[in-house]
Specification:
It is built from eight helices and four strands; from the N terminus they run ααααβααββαβα. It has 274 residues and is of the alpha+beta class. It has two domains: 95 residues; 156 residues, 2-Layer Sandwich (Alpha-Beta Plaits), CATH 3.30.70.270. A hairpin with a 2-residue loop joins β2 and β3. α5 packs across α6 and α6 packs across α7.
């Protein structure tokens, strides 16, 4: 059996051994997690600072463990050990909070458009219904769909399709107020929650949005026409639950889309007859 570099202390409590061992295991686990998250989410400098904080904390804790278990010569003053632990713990805590905030944001935000995702919109809609019930308020939902978006992807490619979605999301954001909530519902569909807005306000929002979108699309200089269809529902006139409000807005949006399609077909038929 190899001799230990320093003699063990004569009295070792099992609880101390377990506590100090778990501390070191937790530090190693934190280092591994920070490294994996850095690889997954980027922002190398921020994650390296987090790793530095964990490592500083780990060095101080390791010196403390050695001092706890062995009769050591006074290589490092006790105050330095404690300072390393405190500084490392503070850095780790600060960046842990930042990491948690980033992960929460990532779970709520659609990565392509920067709007809220479907899951968060459903949660927010439920909260808005409770608030409206409590204070006797009304609000509206606007369901937006990009017409013939599949054709844009098939003819021009998915990169151009992404640029269209990005353009639509930016126009939605610029048209919305600070109290409104915009989300990418999925694919080429968007849902906007207009807080404290009656039916007439939702219609005015849709008109402003379409006008601004037409101007923005012109700047993209796309060889294909890009238009949208929208439909709105209002609480409590059109429903008392999130599901019923979404169904009404979705149905009205498809009515607009169908009417537009029929109008185009009639126009084409008329031109052929001429």
């Amino acid at each position: 059996m190899l001799p230990l570099p320093w003699p063990l202390k004569t009295v070792l409590k099992p609880s101390d051994i377990i506590a100090e061992s778990l501390t070191l295991v937790a530090i190693i686990a934190l280092l591994i997690c920070a490294h994996l998250l850095q690889q997954a989410y980027g922002r190398r400098k921020a994650w390296m600072l987090a790793e530095l904080g964990i490592l500083t904390f780990g060095i101080g804790a390791a010196l403390d463990v050695l001092d706890e278990f062995f009769t050591l010569p006074q290589i490092v003053p006790r105050v330095i050990e404690n300072s390393l632990i405190c500084v490392g713990a503070i850095i780790t805590a600060v960046y842990a909070l930042g990491i948690a905030r980033e992960l929460v944001t990532a779970a709520r935000i659609d990565s392509l458009t920067g709007l809220y995702n479907r899951r968060y919109m459903i949660e927010a809609l439920g909260k808005e219904i409770m608030r409206a019930q409590r204070h006797g308020l009304e609000f509206s939902l606007v369901f937006i769909d990009v017409n013939n978006f599949r054709k844009v992807n098939n003819v021009l490619g998915h990169l151009q399709g992404d640029s269209v979605l990005d353009c639509v999301s930016k126009v939605i954001t610029s048209t919305s107020r600070g109290s409104d909530l915009a989300s990418r519902w999925g694919g080429d569909e968007f849902v906007v929650l207009l807080a404290g807005t009656p039916r007439e306000g939702a219609r005015a929002f849709s008109d402003r949005f379409v006008e601004r979108l037409n101007q923005a699309i012109l700047q993209l200089e796309m060889p294909l026409e890009v238009t949208v269809s929208s439909g709105a529902s209002t609480y409590p006139e059109d429903g008392l639950t999130g599901e019923s409000l979404l169904k009404v807005a979705d149905y009205r949006m498809y009515q607009v889309k169908r009417a537009r399609t029929m109008s185009l077909k009639r126009s084409l038929l008329h031109l052929r007859r001429r």
